[in-house]
Amino acid sequence: MSERAETASPLAWLTSLATHFMRVAPGRWLGSMLLALHVAVVFDADATVTRAFLLAHYGLFLLWQPLVRSEARIEPRLAFPVFAMAALLVLVDSTWVMALWLAILSGLVGAVAASQNERAQRLGYLLALGYLLALLLAWVLPQSLGGTSLPNELRIAVRYGLLLLPAAILFLPASRQRGGSSTLDFIYGLMLSLLIMVMALGVFAVVAVAKVSYAWALVQTLLGMAALLLALSWLWNPRAGFAGLGQVTSRYLLSVGLPFEGWAQRLATLAERERDPESFVRDALSDLHELTWIRGGRWQAARGEGSFGEPAEHAVSHAFHGLTLIWQSARPLTPALALHVRLLSQLLGYFYAAKVREQTLREQAYSQAIHDTGARLTHDVKNILQSLKTLLAAADTSTPEDSERLLALMKRQLPQLAARLSQTVDKLKQPAEMDVAHVAAHTWWVALQTRYEHDDVQFFAEVLDDTPLPQDLFDSVVDNLLTNALRKRQNQTNVAVEVRLTLRPLVSLTVTDSGSAAPEHVARNLFLSPVASDFGLGVGLYQAARQAARSGYRLELPDNQPGRVAFRLEATTRSLNPIPNP
Q1: 394 is a domain residue
Q2: Domain assignment of residue 517, given as a range
Protein backbone atom coordinates (compact mmCIF):
# COMPACT_ATOMS: atom_id res chain seq x y z
CA MET A 1 0.00 0.00 0.00
CA SER A 2 2.81 2.42 0.81
CA GLU A 3 4.53 1.84 -2.57
CA ARG A 4 1.25 2.52 -4.39
CA ALA A 5 0.73 5.66 -2.36
CA GLU A 6 4.26 6.87 -3.13
CA THR A 7 3.71 6.14 -6.84
CA ALA A 8 0.32 7.80 -6.98
CA SER A 9 1.44 10.89 -5.11
CA PRO A 10 3.73 12.33 -7.87
CA LEU A 11 1.13 11.49 -10.52
CA ALA A 12 -1.60 13.24 -8.55
CA TRP A 13 0.69 16.21 -8.00
CA LEU A 14 1.48 16.44 -11.72
CA THR A 15 -2.20 16.14 -12.60
CA SER A 16 -3.09 18.88 -10.15
CA LEU A 17 -0.31 21.08 -11.53
CA ALA A 18 -1.45 20.55 -15.13
CA THR A 19 -5.04 21.35 -14.14
CA HIS A 20 -3.85 24.54 -12.47
CA PHE A 21 -1.91 25.55 -15.58
CA MET A 22 -4.98 24.95 -17.73
CA ARG A 23 -6.95 27.41 -15.60
CA VAL A 24 -4.45 30.22 -16.11
CA ALA A 25 -5.68 32.80 -18.62
CA PRO A 26 -3.60 33.30 -21.82
CA GLY A 27 -3.06 36.95 -20.87
CA ARG A 28 -1.22 35.92 -17.72
CA TRP A 29 1.14 33.69 -19.74
CA LEU A 30 1.68 36.54 -22.20
CA GLY A 31 2.65 39.03 -19.48
CA SER A 32 4.95 36.53 -17.75
CA MET A 33 6.56 35.64 -21.10
CA LEU A 34 7.32 39.31 -21.85
CA LEU A 35 8.73 39.87 -18.33
CA ALA A 36 11.14 36.95 -18.74
CA LEU A 37 12.13 38.25 -22.19
CA HIS A 38 12.73 41.73 -20.77
CA VAL A 39 15.03 40.46 -18.03
CA ALA A 40 16.97 38.27 -20.49
CA VAL A 41 17.46 40.98 -23.14
CA VAL A 42 17.67 44.31 -21.32
CA PHE A 43 19.43 43.61 -18.01
CA ASP A 44 23.15 42.96 -18.25
CA ALA A 45 23.31 39.66 -16.39
CA ASP A 46 25.61 36.67 -16.54
CA ALA A 47 25.30 34.46 -19.62
CA THR A 48 23.97 31.57 -17.55
CA VAL A 49 21.27 33.74 -16.01
CA THR A 50 20.37 35.20 -19.40
CA ARG A 51 20.00 31.75 -20.95
CA ALA A 52 17.90 30.62 -17.99
CA PHE A 53 15.50 33.52 -18.49
CA LEU A 54 15.45 32.90 -22.24
CA LEU A 55 14.58 29.27 -21.61
CA ALA A 56 11.84 30.35 -19.18
CA HIS A 57 10.59 32.84 -21.76
CA TYR A 58 10.38 30.14 -24.41
CA GLY A 59 8.58 27.78 -22.04
CA LEU A 60 6.03 30.47 -21.22
CA PHE A 61 5.68 31.10 -24.96
CA LEU A 62 4.77 27.44 -25.47
CA LEU A 63 2.12 27.76 -22.78
CA TRP A 64 0.69 30.88 -24.44
CA GLN A 65 1.13 30.09 -28.16
CA PRO A 66 -2.16 30.10 -30.18
CA LEU A 67 -1.02 27.75 -32.95
CA VAL A 68 -1.61 24.37 -31.28
CA ARG A 69 -4.25 23.69 -28.65
CA SER A 70 -2.93 22.75 -25.26
CA GLU A 71 -4.83 19.44 -25.18
CA ALA A 72 -3.57 18.38 -28.62
CA ARG A 73 -0.89 15.74 -28.98
CA ILE A 74 2.29 17.02 -30.65
CA GLU A 75 3.73 14.79 -33.36
CA PRO A 76 7.52 14.29 -33.61
CA ARG A 77 7.76 16.15 -36.92
CA LEU A 78 6.10 19.15 -35.24
CA ALA A 79 8.19 18.89 -32.06
CA PHE A 80 11.50 19.09 -33.96
CA PRO A 81 11.14 22.74 -35.13
CA VAL A 82 9.94 23.66 -31.61
CA PHE A 83 13.14 22.36 -29.99
CA ALA A 84 15.27 23.71 -32.86
CA MET A 85 13.93 27.21 -32.31
CA ALA A 86 14.51 26.92 -28.56
CA ALA A 87 18.11 25.84 -29.13
CA LEU A 88 18.72 28.66 -31.61
CA LEU A 89 17.28 31.27 -29.25
CA VAL A 90 19.07 30.05 -26.11
CA LEU A 91 22.44 28.90 -27.42
CA VAL A 92 23.16 31.46 -30.17
CA ASP A 93 24.09 34.83 -28.69
CA SER A 94 23.22 37.10 -31.63
CA THR A 95 21.19 40.30 -31.79
CA TRP A 96 20.01 39.40 -35.30
CA VAL A 97 18.54 36.11 -34.01
CA MET A 98 16.79 38.08 -31.28
CA ALA A 99 15.52 40.60 -33.87
CA LEU A 100 14.16 37.73 -35.99
CA TRP A 101 12.46 36.23 -32.96
CA LEU A 102 10.91 39.56 -32.00
CA ALA A 103 9.55 39.99 -35.55
CA ILE A 104 7.99 36.50 -35.49
CA LEU A 105 6.58 37.08 -32.00
CA SER A 106 5.17 40.47 -33.07
CA GLY A 107 3.38 38.81 -35.99
CA LEU A 108 1.79 36.18 -33.73
CA VAL A 109 0.69 38.76 -31.17
CA GLY A 110 -0.73 41.00 -33.90
CA ALA A 111 -2.61 38.09 -35.47
CA VAL A 112 -4.17 37.16 -32.12
CA ALA A 113 -5.03 40.81 -31.45
CA ALA A 114 -6.86 41.03 -34.79
CA SER A 115 -9.06 38.05 -33.86
CA GLN A 116 -10.11 39.33 -30.41
CA ASN A 117 -13.62 40.64 -29.85
CA GLU A 118 -13.46 41.77 -26.22
CA ARG A 119 -11.98 45.18 -25.59
CA ALA A 120 -9.85 44.19 -22.56
CA GLN A 121 -8.23 41.26 -24.37
CA ARG A 122 -7.52 43.35 -27.47
CA LEU A 123 -5.96 46.06 -25.26
CA GLY A 124 -3.64 43.52 -23.64
CA TYR A 125 -2.40 42.21 -26.99
CA LEU A 126 -1.95 45.74 -28.34
CA LEU A 127 0.19 46.59 -25.29
CA ALA A 128 2.24 43.47 -25.94
CA LEU A 129 2.66 44.40 -29.60
CA GLY A 130 3.75 47.92 -28.64
CA TYR A 131 6.27 46.50 -26.15
CA LEU A 132 7.80 44.15 -28.74
CA LEU A 133 8.14 46.90 -31.35
CA ALA A 134 9.65 49.31 -28.82
CA LEU A 135 12.11 46.68 -27.61
CA LEU A 136 13.14 45.91 -31.18
CA LEU A 137 13.51 49.50 -32.36
CA ALA A 138 14.95 51.06 -29.20
CA TRP A 139 17.23 48.27 -27.95
CA VAL A 140 17.86 45.21 -30.14
CA LEU A 141 18.10 46.83 -33.58
CA PRO A 142 20.58 49.62 -32.54
CA GLN A 143 22.86 47.01 -30.96
CA SER A 144 22.72 44.81 -34.06
CA LEU A 145 24.10 47.63 -36.22
CA GLY A 146 27.36 47.82 -34.25
CA GLY A 147 29.15 50.99 -33.21
CA THR A 148 25.91 52.64 -32.15
CA SER A 149 25.86 53.60 -28.50
CA LEU A 150 22.53 54.23 -26.79
CA PRO A 151 22.07 57.37 -24.69
CA ASN A 152 21.78 56.81 -20.96
CA GLU A 153 18.29 58.33 -20.92
CA LEU A 154 17.14 55.83 -23.57
CA ARG A 155 18.72 52.96 -21.65
CA ILE A 156 16.91 53.92 -18.45
CA ALA A 157 13.61 54.43 -20.32
CA VAL A 158 13.87 51.05 -22.01
CA ARG A 159 15.12 49.18 -18.95
CA TYR A 160 12.53 50.46 -16.49
CA GLY A 161 9.89 52.26 -18.56
CA LEU A 162 9.09 49.40 -20.92
CA LEU A 163 8.80 47.10 -17.91
CA LEU A 164 5.47 48.76 -17.13
CA LEU A 165 3.80 47.34 -20.27
CA PRO A 166 4.17 43.61 -19.36
CA ALA A 167 3.25 44.46 -15.78
CA ALA A 168 0.08 46.23 -16.98
CA ILE A 169 -0.85 43.13 -19.04
CA LEU A 170 -0.72 41.03 -15.87
CA PHE A 171 -3.21 43.31 -14.10
CA LEU A 172 -5.72 43.58 -16.95
CA PRO A 173 -9.04 41.66 -16.59
CA ALA A 174 -8.24 38.17 -17.81
CA SER A 175 -10.41 35.76 -19.75
CA ARG A 176 -9.94 31.99 -19.60
CA GLN A 177 -11.10 31.52 -23.14
CA ARG A 178 -8.22 30.30 -25.27
CA GLY A 179 -8.30 31.21 -28.93
CA GLY A 180 -7.82 28.30 -31.31
CA SER A 181 -5.96 28.22 -34.52
CA SER A 182 -9.22 28.50 -36.45
CA THR A 183 -9.64 32.12 -35.28
CA LEU A 184 -6.03 33.15 -35.90
CA ASP A 185 -5.48 35.57 -38.78
CA PHE A 186 -2.37 34.02 -40.32
CA ILE A 187 -2.28 36.42 -43.26
CA TYR A 188 -2.31 39.44 -40.95
CA GLY A 189 0.43 37.95 -38.75
CA LEU A 190 2.58 37.03 -41.74
CA MET A 191 2.27 40.48 -43.26
CA LEU A 192 3.10 42.14 -39.94
CA SER A 193 6.20 39.97 -39.45
CA LEU A 194 7.38 40.68 -43.00
CA LEU A 195 6.88 44.42 -42.58
CA ILE A 196 8.92 44.40 -39.38
CA MET A 197 11.71 42.43 -41.08
CA VAL A 198 11.69 44.78 -44.06
CA MET A 199 11.87 47.76 -41.73
CA ALA A 200 14.85 46.31 -39.84
CA LEU A 201 16.70 45.47 -43.03
CA GLY A 202 15.86 48.90 -44.44
CA VAL A 203 17.36 50.65 -41.42
CA PHE A 204 20.45 48.50 -41.74
CA ALA A 205 20.76 49.34 -45.47
CA VAL A 206 20.34 53.08 -44.91
CA VAL A 207 22.93 53.13 -42.13
CA ALA A 208 25.38 51.05 -44.15
CA VAL A 209 25.01 53.02 -47.41
CA ALA A 210 24.26 56.59 -46.34
CA LYS A 211 26.42 56.52 -43.17
CA VAL A 212 23.76 58.40 -41.20
CA SER A 213 22.68 58.05 -37.60
CA TYR A 214 20.34 55.30 -36.51
CA ALA A 215 17.53 57.72 -35.63
CA TRP A 216 17.61 59.41 -39.05
CA ALA A 217 17.83 56.03 -40.81
CA LEU A 218 14.78 54.85 -38.84
CA VAL A 219 12.83 57.97 -39.82
CA GLN A 220 13.72 57.57 -43.48
CA THR A 221 12.76 53.89 -43.47
CA LEU A 222 9.42 54.55 -41.77
CA LEU A 223 8.59 57.35 -44.23
CA GLY A 224 9.47 55.14 -47.18
CA MET A 225 7.37 52.26 -45.86
CA ALA A 226 4.47 54.63 -45.19
CA ALA A 227 4.61 55.90 -48.78
CA LEU A 228 4.79 52.32 -50.08
CA LEU A 229 1.81 51.20 -47.99
CA LEU A 230 -0.19 54.23 -49.13
CA ALA A 231 0.50 53.40 -52.77
CA LEU A 232 -0.39 49.72 -52.21
CA SER A 233 -3.65 50.66 -50.47
CA TRP A 234 -4.62 52.80 -53.46
CA LEU A 235 -3.67 50.09 -55.96
CA TRP A 236 -5.59 47.49 -53.95
CA ASN A 237 -8.92 49.22 -54.58
CA PRO A 238 -8.47 52.13 -57.04
CA ARG A 239 -11.22 54.57 -57.95
CA ALA A 240 -10.17 55.16 -61.55
CA GLY A 241 -12.52 52.60 -63.10
CA PHE A 242 -10.15 49.61 -63.46
CA ALA A 243 -9.64 46.50 -61.38
CA GLY A 244 -7.17 46.72 -58.53
CA LEU A 245 -4.82 44.30 -56.86
CA GLY A 246 -7.66 43.08 -54.63
CA GLN A 247 -9.67 41.74 -57.56
CA VAL A 248 -6.57 40.35 -59.23
CA THR A 249 -5.64 38.50 -56.04
CA SER A 250 -9.17 37.19 -55.58
CA ARG A 251 -9.28 36.01 -59.20
CA TYR A 252 -5.97 34.25 -58.76
CA LEU A 253 -7.09 32.52 -55.57
CA LEU A 254 -10.29 31.35 -57.27
CA SER A 255 -8.60 30.11 -60.45
CA VAL A 256 -5.25 28.81 -59.21
CA GLY A 257 -4.30 25.61 -61.00
CA LEU A 258 -7.45 25.51 -63.16
CA PRO A 259 -9.57 28.31 -64.71
CA PHE A 260 -12.75 28.41 -62.66
CA GLU A 261 -14.86 29.57 -65.62
CA GLY A 262 -13.65 26.70 -67.79
CA TRP A 263 -14.39 24.13 -65.08
CA ALA A 264 -17.90 25.54 -64.54
CA GLN A 265 -18.59 25.56 -68.29
CA ARG A 266 -17.51 21.94 -68.67
CA LEU A 267 -19.67 20.95 -65.71
CA ALA A 268 -22.70 22.69 -67.22
CA THR A 269 -22.13 21.01 -70.58
CA LEU A 270 -21.75 17.62 -68.92
CA ALA A 271 -24.90 18.22 -66.84
CA GLU A 272 -26.91 18.80 -70.01
CA ARG A 273 -25.58 15.62 -71.63
CA GLU A 274 -25.57 13.17 -68.70
CA ARG A 275 -28.81 12.32 -66.89
CA ASP A 276 -27.59 9.82 -64.29
CA PRO A 277 -26.17 11.57 -61.16
CA GLU A 278 -23.46 8.99 -60.44
CA SER A 279 -22.32 8.86 -64.07
CA PHE A 280 -22.20 12.65 -64.07
CA VAL A 281 -19.89 12.69 -61.02
CA ARG A 282 -17.65 9.98 -62.49
CA ASP A 283 -17.26 11.81 -65.82
CA ALA A 284 -16.72 15.18 -64.11
CA LEU A 285 -13.94 13.85 -61.90
CA SER A 286 -12.26 12.08 -64.79
CA ASP A 287 -11.88 15.51 -66.41
CA LEU A 288 -9.52 16.75 -63.68
CA HIS A 289 -6.32 15.66 -65.38
CA GLU A 290 -5.28 19.32 -65.69
CA LEU A 291 -4.96 19.65 -61.91
CA THR A 292 -1.35 18.64 -61.50
CA TRP A 293 -1.46 19.19 -57.74
CA ILE A 294 -4.25 16.59 -57.36
CA ARG A 295 -3.11 12.99 -57.79
CA GLY A 296 -6.48 11.32 -57.36
CA GLY A 297 -9.26 10.70 -54.91
CA ARG A 298 -12.52 8.95 -54.12
CA TRP A 299 -16.19 9.88 -54.18
CA GLN A 300 -19.18 8.37 -52.45
CA ALA A 301 -22.91 8.99 -52.89
CA ALA A 302 -26.15 7.33 -51.87
CA ARG A 303 -26.34 5.13 -54.99
CA GLY A 304 -22.71 4.48 -55.78
CA GLU A 305 -19.06 5.23 -55.21
CA GLY A 306 -15.85 5.29 -57.17
CA SER A 307 -12.30 6.58 -57.45
CA PHE A 308 -10.25 8.62 -59.89
CA GLY A 309 -6.54 9.14 -60.47
CA GLU A 310 -3.90 7.56 -58.23
CA PRO A 311 -3.80 7.32 -54.42
CA ALA A 312 -1.56 9.78 -52.57
CA GLU A 313 -0.38 10.44 -49.04
CA HIS A 314 -2.32 13.59 -48.11
CA ALA A 315 -6.12 13.76 -48.30
CA VAL A 316 -8.76 16.45 -47.91
CA SER A 317 -12.43 15.51 -47.50
CA HIS A 318 -15.53 17.57 -48.28
CA ALA A 319 -19.22 16.62 -48.21
CA PHE A 320 -21.96 18.63 -49.92
CA HIS A 321 -25.57 17.63 -50.63
CA GLY A 322 -25.07 13.91 -50.15
CA LEU A 323 -21.83 13.75 -52.16
CA THR A 324 -18.59 13.03 -50.29
CA LEU A 325 -15.34 13.87 -52.10
CA ILE A 326 -11.87 12.90 -50.92
CA TRP A 327 -9.06 14.71 -52.74
CA GLN A 328 -5.57 13.22 -52.50
CA SER A 329 -2.33 15.09 -53.19
CA ALA A 330 1.36 14.35 -52.96
CA ARG A 331 1.93 17.19 -50.45
CA PRO A 332 -0.31 19.21 -48.13
CA LEU A 333 -2.43 21.78 -49.92
CA THR A 334 -1.73 25.45 -49.41
CA PRO A 335 -4.60 27.63 -48.08
CA ALA A 336 -5.33 28.95 -51.59
CA LEU A 337 -5.46 25.45 -53.08
CA ALA A 338 -7.53 24.20 -50.14
CA LEU A 339 -10.06 26.99 -50.79
CA HIS A 340 -10.05 26.11 -54.48
CA VAL A 341 -10.72 22.43 -53.73
CA ARG A 342 -13.58 23.41 -51.43
CA LEU A 343 -15.17 25.57 -54.13
CA LEU A 344 -14.85 22.80 -56.71
CA SER A 345 -16.36 20.30 -54.29
CA GLN A 346 -19.24 22.62 -53.46
CA LEU A 347 -19.97 23.32 -57.12
CA LEU A 348 -19.88 19.62 -57.98
CA GLY A 349 -22.16 18.93 -55.00
CA TYR A 350 -24.69 21.50 -56.24
CA PHE A 351 -24.72 19.95 -59.72
CA TYR A 352 -25.05 16.47 -58.21
CA ALA A 353 -27.99 17.57 -56.06
CA ALA A 354 -29.63 19.09 -59.15
CA LYS A 355 -29.20 15.81 -61.06
CA VAL A 356 -30.67 13.85 -58.14
CA ARG A 357 -33.68 16.16 -58.02
CA GLU A 358 -34.06 15.84 -61.78
CA GLN A 359 -34.00 12.05 -61.55
CA THR A 360 -36.51 12.14 -58.69
CA LEU A 361 -38.84 14.32 -60.73
CA ARG A 362 -38.59 11.90 -63.68
CA GLU A 363 -39.43 8.98 -61.43
CA GLN A 364 -42.33 10.87 -59.91
CA ALA A 365 -43.60 11.84 -63.36
CA TYR A 366 -43.37 8.22 -64.47
CA SER A 367 -45.22 7.06 -61.35
CA GLN A 368 -47.81 9.81 -61.85
CA ALA A 369 -48.36 8.71 -65.46
CA ILE A 370 -48.86 5.13 -64.30
CA HIS A 371 -51.25 6.34 -61.61
CA ASP A 372 -53.26 8.47 -64.05
CA THR A 373 -53.50 5.65 -66.55
CA GLY A 374 -54.55 3.19 -63.87
CA ALA A 375 -57.09 5.60 -62.41
CA ARG A 376 -58.68 6.25 -65.79
CA LEU A 377 -58.83 2.59 -66.70
CA THR A 378 -60.24 1.80 -63.26
CA HIS A 379 -63.11 4.20 -63.89
CA ASP A 380 -63.70 2.70 -67.31
CA VAL A 381 -63.88 -0.79 -65.81
CA LYS A 382 -66.12 0.52 -63.04
CA ASN A 383 -68.54 2.01 -65.58
CA ILE A 384 -68.56 -1.23 -67.58
CA LEU A 385 -69.24 -3.15 -64.38
CA GLN A 386 -72.10 -0.78 -63.59
CA SER A 387 -73.63 -1.47 -67.00
CA LEU A 388 -73.29 -5.22 -66.40
CA LYS A 389 -75.03 -4.86 -63.06
CA THR A 390 -77.86 -3.00 -64.78
CA LEU A 391 -78.27 -5.85 -67.27
CA LEU A 392 -78.22 -8.41 -64.46
CA ALA A 393 -80.82 -6.43 -62.54
CA ALA A 394 -83.02 -6.33 -65.67
CA ALA A 395 -82.62 -10.10 -66.07
CA ASP A 396 -83.53 -10.75 -62.42
CA THR A 397 -86.69 -8.65 -62.55
CA SER A 398 -87.87 -9.87 -65.97
CA THR A 399 -90.86 -12.20 -66.46
CA PRO A 400 -91.34 -14.96 -69.07
CA GLU A 401 -93.36 -12.50 -71.14
CA ASP A 402 -90.29 -10.20 -71.30
CA SER A 403 -87.94 -12.86 -72.62
CA GLU A 404 -87.91 -11.58 -76.19
CA ARG A 405 -87.37 -7.98 -75.13
CA LEU A 406 -84.62 -9.06 -72.66
CA LEU A 407 -82.91 -11.06 -75.38
CA ALA A 408 -82.94 -8.08 -77.71
CA LEU A 409 -81.50 -5.92 -74.93
CA MET A 410 -78.71 -8.42 -74.32
CA LYS A 411 -77.88 -8.55 -78.02
CA ARG A 412 -77.56 -4.79 -78.15
CA GLN A 413 -75.71 -4.21 -74.89
CA LEU A 414 -73.32 -7.13 -74.57
CA PRO A 415 -71.41 -6.47 -77.83
CA GLN A 416 -70.96 -2.85 -76.81
CA LEU A 417 -69.75 -3.83 -73.35
CA ALA A 418 -67.37 -6.36 -74.86
CA ALA A 419 -66.03 -3.73 -77.26
CA ARG A 420 -65.54 -1.23 -74.45
CA LEU A 421 -63.80 -3.83 -72.30
CA SER A 422 -61.56 -4.74 -75.23
CA GLN A 423 -60.66 -1.07 -75.70
CA THR A 424 -59.82 -0.79 -72.01
CA VAL A 425 -57.48 -3.78 -72.23
CA ASP A 426 -55.84 -2.27 -75.33
CA LYS A 427 -55.29 0.99 -73.45
CA LEU A 428 -53.60 -0.94 -70.67
CA LYS A 429 -51.24 -2.53 -73.17
CA GLN A 430 -50.54 0.70 -75.08
CA PRO A 431 -51.26 3.71 -72.81
CA ALA A 432 -49.48 6.11 -75.17
CA GLU A 433 -52.21 5.65 -77.80
CA MET A 434 -55.06 6.72 -75.52
CA ASP A 435 -57.39 9.46 -76.76
CA VAL A 436 -56.31 8.88 -80.37
CA ALA A 437 -59.44 7.19 -81.78
CA HIS A 438 -62.28 9.43 -82.98
CA VAL A 439 -65.87 8.57 -83.77
CA ALA A 440 -68.58 10.40 -85.69
CA ALA A 441 -70.94 12.41 -83.50
CA HIS A 442 -74.18 10.71 -84.68
CA THR A 443 -72.66 7.22 -84.24
CA TRP A 444 -71.51 7.97 -80.72
CA TRP A 445 -74.85 9.56 -79.81
CA VAL A 446 -76.83 6.52 -80.94
CA ALA A 447 -74.56 4.16 -78.97
CA LEU A 448 -74.94 6.33 -75.87
CA GLN A 449 -78.73 6.26 -76.07
CA THR A 450 -78.65 2.50 -76.45
CA ARG A 451 -76.52 2.02 -73.32
CA TYR A 452 -78.81 4.09 -71.10
CA GLU A 453 -82.21 3.39 -72.67
CA HIS A 454 -83.49 1.65 -69.50
CA ASP A 455 -82.20 4.27 -67.01
CA ASP A 456 -84.85 6.93 -67.64
CA VAL A 457 -82.40 9.44 -69.07
CA GLN A 458 -83.60 12.15 -71.45
CA PHE A 459 -81.42 12.86 -74.49
CA PHE A 460 -81.50 16.11 -76.49
CA ALA A 461 -79.39 16.85 -79.53
CA GLU A 462 -79.38 19.18 -82.49
CA VAL A 463 -78.77 18.09 -86.06
CA LEU A 464 -75.88 15.62 -85.87
CA ASP A 465 -73.33 15.03 -88.58
CA ASP A 466 -69.92 13.41 -88.95
CA THR A 467 -68.14 15.83 -86.61
CA PRO A 468 -65.28 13.83 -85.05
CA LEU A 469 -65.40 13.32 -81.28
CA PRO A 470 -62.61 11.78 -79.17
CA GLN A 471 -64.32 8.54 -78.30
CA ASP A 472 -62.35 7.68 -75.19
CA LEU A 473 -62.79 11.14 -73.69
CA PHE A 474 -66.53 11.36 -74.34
CA ASP A 475 -67.18 7.79 -73.14
CA SER A 476 -65.20 8.31 -69.95
CA VAL A 477 -66.71 11.71 -69.11
CA VAL A 478 -70.33 10.87 -69.87
CA ASP A 479 -70.15 7.57 -68.01
CA ASN A 480 -68.74 9.33 -64.92
CA LEU A 481 -71.33 12.10 -65.06
CA LEU A 482 -74.29 9.80 -65.66
CA THR A 483 -73.16 7.31 -62.99
CA ASN A 484 -72.91 10.10 -60.42
CA ALA A 485 -76.28 11.56 -61.45
CA LEU A 486 -78.10 8.22 -61.40
CA ARG A 487 -76.58 7.37 -58.01
CA LYS A 488 -78.49 10.30 -56.49
CA ARG A 489 -81.71 8.39 -57.10
CA GLN A 490 -80.74 5.95 -54.36
CA ASN A 491 -81.26 8.59 -51.63
CA GLN A 492 -83.41 11.19 -53.45
CA THR A 493 -86.74 10.89 -55.22
CA ASN A 494 -87.81 12.19 -58.61
CA VAL A 495 -84.30 13.00 -59.83
CA ALA A 496 -84.49 13.85 -63.52
CA VAL A 497 -81.37 13.35 -65.65
CA GLU A 498 -80.85 14.76 -69.12
CA VAL A 499 -77.98 14.80 -71.62
CA ARG A 500 -77.63 17.49 -74.29
CA LEU A 501 -75.17 17.49 -77.20
CA THR A 502 -74.49 20.49 -79.43
CA LEU A 503 -71.97 20.78 -82.25
CA ARG A 504 -72.26 24.48 -83.20
CA PRO A 505 -70.40 26.76 -82.74
CA LEU A 506 -68.30 24.55 -80.44
CA VAL A 507 -68.76 20.93 -79.48
CA SER A 508 -70.50 20.83 -76.11
CA LEU A 509 -71.90 18.00 -73.99
CA THR A 510 -74.02 18.89 -70.94
CA VAL A 511 -75.29 16.48 -68.26
CA THR A 512 -77.92 17.95 -65.92
CA ASP A 513 -79.76 16.45 -62.95
CA SER A 514 -82.36 17.82 -60.55
CA GLY A 515 -80.76 16.43 -57.42
CA SER A 516 -78.96 18.14 -54.56
CA ALA A 517 -76.08 20.48 -55.22
CA ALA A 518 -72.47 19.56 -54.56
CA PRO A 519 -71.02 21.08 -51.33
CA GLU A 520 -69.13 24.31 -51.79
CA HIS A 521 -65.73 22.88 -50.77
CA VAL A 522 -66.25 19.97 -53.17
CA ALA A 523 -67.33 22.18 -56.08
CA ARG A 524 -64.40 24.53 -55.54
CA ASN A 525 -61.76 21.77 -55.85
CA LEU A 526 -63.68 19.32 -58.01
CA PHE A 527 -61.41 19.55 -61.08
CA LEU A 528 -58.23 20.67 -59.30
CA SER A 529 -57.51 17.75 -56.96
CA PRO A 530 -59.06 14.49 -55.77
CA VAL A 531 -61.96 15.22 -53.41
CA ALA A 532 -63.66 12.71 -51.15
CA SER A 533 -67.45 12.60 -51.46
CA ASP A 534 -70.31 10.40 -50.34
CA PHE A 535 -71.43 9.96 -53.94
CA GLY A 536 -68.01 9.29 -55.40
CA LEU A 537 -67.55 12.76 -56.88
CA GLY A 538 -64.01 14.02 -57.07
CA VAL A 539 -61.45 11.45 -58.12
CA GLY A 540 -63.13 10.39 -61.37
CA LEU A 541 -63.99 13.94 -62.41
CA TYR A 542 -60.47 15.10 -61.52
CA GLN A 543 -59.03 12.50 -63.90
CA ALA A 544 -61.67 13.35 -66.52
CA ALA A 545 -60.78 17.05 -66.31
CA ARG A 546 -57.09 16.32 -66.88
CA GLN A 547 -57.96 14.01 -69.78
CA ALA A 548 -60.16 16.72 -71.29
CA ALA A 549 -57.40 19.31 -71.02
CA ARG A 550 -55.01 17.03 -72.91
CA SER A 551 -57.59 16.60 -75.71
CA GLY A 552 -58.37 20.28 -76.16
CA TYR A 553 -61.53 20.32 -74.06
CA ARG A 554 -62.48 21.65 -70.65
CA LEU A 555 -64.79 20.15 -68.05
CA GLU A 556 -66.63 22.63 -65.85
CA LEU A 557 -69.54 23.02 -63.46
CA PRO A 558 -71.52 26.04 -64.78
CA ASP A 559 -74.57 25.47 -62.59
CA ASN A 560 -74.57 24.10 -59.04
CA GLN A 561 -77.77 24.74 -57.11
CA PRO A 562 -80.45 22.53 -55.55
CA GLY A 563 -82.69 21.18 -58.30
CA ARG A 564 -80.24 21.93 -61.11
CA VAL A 565 -76.68 20.60 -61.23
CA ALA A 566 -75.10 20.86 -64.68
CA PHE A 567 -71.70 19.60 -65.86
CA ARG A 568 -70.43 20.69 -69.27
CA LEU A 569 -67.67 19.29 -71.48
CA GLU A 570 -66.82 21.90 -74.09
CA ALA A 571 -64.16 22.18 -76.77
CA THR A 572 -61.72 25.05 -76.45
CA THR A 573 -61.20 25.28 -80.25
CA ARG A 574 -63.36 24.60 -83.27
CA SER A 575 -63.35 20.98 -84.48
CA LEU A 576 -65.88 20.79 -87.32
CA ASN A 577 -63.98 18.74 -89.86
CA PRO A 578 -65.85 15.52 -90.70
CA ILE A 579 -64.10 12.18 -90.45
CA PRO A 580 -62.64 11.28 -93.86
CA ASN A 581 -64.13 8.26 -95.54
CA PRO A 582 -61.86 5.25 -95.66
Answers
A1: no
A2: 438-582
